[in-house]
Amino acid sequence: MLCARYGPVALEYVGGRVRLAEACEKYVELAEFVKSIKVEGPLIALLGIRRGTAASYSAVAKALGLTPRAVGKLLAKNPLPVILPCHRVVYADGRLGGYEYGVEVKRALLRHEGALCGDRACRLSGVEPVEGDVYAAILKSLGLNDI
Question: Considering the entire predicted model, what is its pTM?
Answer without folding.
Answer: 0.95
